[in-house]
């Protein structure tokens, strides 16, 4: 065992302690996931309070996603050189910092400082999403989709903690709305760091430090292109609609409590299917699970177009969350099929970099489209990337059928 508290290589003994690692990663996912929930529930609203122009209301969430993209590759470098646990602890440090800076921004009324806080929040979220791949390292290859999805299931608790954190703390520090929420979020991030201290994962091997094949060679694989495209579209549309929904609800005259509950049910729907998504991938294959996710996302947009009352918003957000789960977890499982063991951290972090970099564009576009053209236009635009992902997935499935032996 090295000084990072990580074993030298994956072994039967390592797999024997895999259950403990997975439990800790799941608990950390539950605690850390509340960070993203708080940002999504409050980002556009606080942005609208502090921004010099309403068109910039969703800029903090865009910067949050940019932080995810910008920090995905550095987090991968840290994991490759010093082990995944080191990357986890750096990430939770950013989680504490985002809460402190966001609270200070609200107190001082500084929009730029709030945007800086969400940048650190994005860095934290990027590290948290790598928990799913770390879980796959804890089990034999045949059980990786189930381990990956089980850790993602920790987000169910995050879906409860985050919105309730907002509801019960947003008015604690009068007149600084949400300042108490951000301080509470910083405390939750610190608790997550304590949980992660007990994680034991294999230290980087010499082969992993060497890096394996060039990333360009890996990225040209048809299966990798399919995995990235479906991961991008699943996350892009979840973010595109989720960014606009709380503000759209307020613009439609609905209460903040209704928006908070909508976010809560959305996040629960994002992660609750993870209790069985891994089994579905094992039995039906990742391609079919991704296809189901894209169909659910299309259905969510269709429901949103039917009305603008609380019920329509909530059902849209619930279906959107389920669609994201099937699409994103399925695409993540496809990524695991595209790299060799020594290439895992590089390929996984590159995948996340592409996904979050694209999502950042969608987040900024969402706020602009919402303020200029309204909620229905945001929903209609969702069908364009859905069509692209569906065609890419169908082509990949056809190619697999051709290659399969008769």
TrEMBL record:
Gene3D superfamilies: MFS general substrate transporter like domains. Keywords: Membrane, Transmembrane, Transmembrane helix. Residues 215-406 form the Major facilitator superfamily (MFS) profile domain. The chain crosses the membrane at residues 30-51, 57-79, 86-105, 111-135, 147-166, 178-203, 224-243, 263-282, 289-308, 314-338, 350-371, 377-394. This is MFS transporter.
